[in-house]
Specification:
Layout lengths: L11 H14 L3 E2 L1 H20 L9 H17 L4 E2 L1 H22 L7 H17 L5 E3 H9 L5 H14 L2 E3 L4 E4 L2
Helix pairs in contact: 2-4, 3-4, 5-7
Length: 181
Amino acid sequence: PKRSMVGSPFHFADLKRFIAYCRRNCSPRLSAEAAGNLESKYVEIRKEMAGNGKGSIPITVRQLEAITRISESLAKMQLCQEVTVAHVEEAVRLFTRATLEAARSGLQLETLSREEMDEVRKAEDAVKQRLHVGGRANKGTLVGDISKRGFDPKHIHRAIQIMVRRGDLEERADFTIGRKL
């Protein structure tokens, strides 16, 4: 019997076959119109970020490449051989929600109350105690361990965010946090 995913109209095996088919038979490329749209969105985002002044997060060429890959993936899911403007628009929307809004929220550190900043500093100390210099830990495990000691996870996440921005910690794509030397 085929396994079905909870709440999904697809069986797991069917989904695996569809993904394999897409990988083998579909290699979408940007249409000229989609490439122009992507270029204008990139310029628009760069201008917006530059206009935000000191402390803003710039969009890089690497992020532009990520948006391109997202656009291609969206087209591939629809078995399209060409990336359309609609795919680019959705990729930019997803990128903006996932990346830029998260980065912007990190710029709002100054809005914490004095009490919250004290809690964040205490959480920083707890992170330093839990993670020795040169050490690495899964972010979820690190937050869970420290929150068991009575810290609010929100303050722990904020402390980690500050420490990463300051260069004390390194956050990797595999959701691990490392303490720098």
